[in-house]
Amino acid sequence: LSLTRAREPCLMESAPGLESEDMPLTEAIHTIIKDEAVTDFYRPSEELPIGTHVLCLFLSSTDGYSIGIITTFHFQTQPAPSSVVNWVYEIPMTNPNVAASSFSHIQSFALNASVIDDRIGFGVTPSPSNFHISGTYHGDEATFRSKIAPEFLRTLPTPASSKIATLSWLDSLEDMWGHPLPQPLSGYDAHDNFYAKSVLVPETTPLSPSALLKYFTYIATNGSSTSGWFSELNLLGGPASRINNPPYPSAYSSRNSLWVLQHYGIVPSTANGATKPTIDFVNGLNDALGMGYGGYLNYVDPELSASQAHDVYYSRSVYERLVGIKRVVDPKGVFWNPQAVGFDGGE
């Protein structure tokens, strides 16, 4: 193998293997490096045609493991924010109808340009009886309290508890994560054995009242009897979304998404792979929302065949371009995984 350098914008929201399941780390890297990174790649071919590096940039922004191995990162850092407003609400949900109507309001809030811009982000973690809602605001606390919070809470049940605090950048990250940021150089053990699926909801067709009612009814009916799971509905789009309006092209094609939903079932560490009850429950979360949605490549579903994964995670035009790049950069298929670009099963 030869060492070849490629310049790659580091898209944390769309680069498998670079994504952190812990939002603070992802947000930290986003803000500090502003998506500016150079990577050194090991690739299987010494001689690459002219222009190939530009193609590799496009492919590696979402599926780099199909063409090579990143060996080194070179970051261009940026100043961290002077402060961040962290906010959390615990809101009781007495039944699925209340949950569905409450999320409908939150969805309308997410599309309201009078209160939403690129300084705010949040996610909703539902349970059978509660919404845990947490987010950050890169503005002043007085504006959040006087303008944003009242509109967010309008029509919602009274929160059981809440927290709004202005913190330093590093304190904000630790507060969101709930753990100290420093990690040991050896002996790191924050791992899960899990099964995950995802749903990408377009801005043009937000979650309907009927889909939300079916979804929260499924959670209320099955969530209490199922251990070790969570659902997260995180805001990707809305007014001034930087995710939906990147400064450069990439192979991440879902640039019109409003929500990304992660459905996550934890499997006992002693189990040999995901158990059927866990897979069935997580599939039920997806199925409750209906068909026709795309998926988020960082929440890989290993149960999908290669062709199914390609349909779910890529648009057809993007996938065809990725296959063309793969054929140029790695014509012998050195880099492979069960859902890799260029392999549709039996190849």
List the helices and strands and how they pair.
Blueprint: E1 2-7, H1 23-33, E2 37-43, H2 52-63, E3 69-75, E4 84-92, H3 96-110, E5 120-127, E6 130-137, H4 141-153, E7 161-167, H5 169-177, E8 194-202, H6 209-222, E9 229-235, E10 257-266, H7 276-288, H8 306-313, H9 316-329
Antiparallel strand pairs: 1-2, 2-3, 4-6, 4-7, 5-6, 5-9, 8-10, 9-10
Describe the structure.
- With 347 residues, the chain is of the alpha+beta class.
- Helices cover 31% and strands 22% of the residues.
- The chain contains 9 helices and 10 strands.
- The strands form 2 sheets. A 7-stranded antiparallel β-sheet has the order 7-4-6-5-9-10-8. A 3-stranded antiparallel β-sheet has the order 1-2-3, with helices on one face.
- Helix 1 (23-33) packs antiparallel against helix 5, helix 2 packs across helix 9 and helix 6 runs antiparallel to helix 7.
- The two termini are 23 Å apart.
- 34% of the residues are buried.
Core attributes:
347 residues, alpha+beta, seven-stranded antiparallel sheet, three-stranded antiparallel sheet, 9 helices, 31% helix, disordered N terminus
What structural category characterises the helix and strand content?
alpha+beta
- What's the shape? globular
- Main sheet summary: 7 strands, antiparallel
Q: How many helices?
A: 9
Strand order of the largest sheet: 7-4-6-5-9-10-8
What quaternary form is this?
single chain
Unreliable stretches (pLDDT < 50, length at least 5) are 1-39, 41-54
Which value, in Å, is the CA radius of gyration?
Answer: 21 Å
Beta-strand fraction estimate = 15-25%
Helix content: 25-40%
Count of individual beta strands: 10
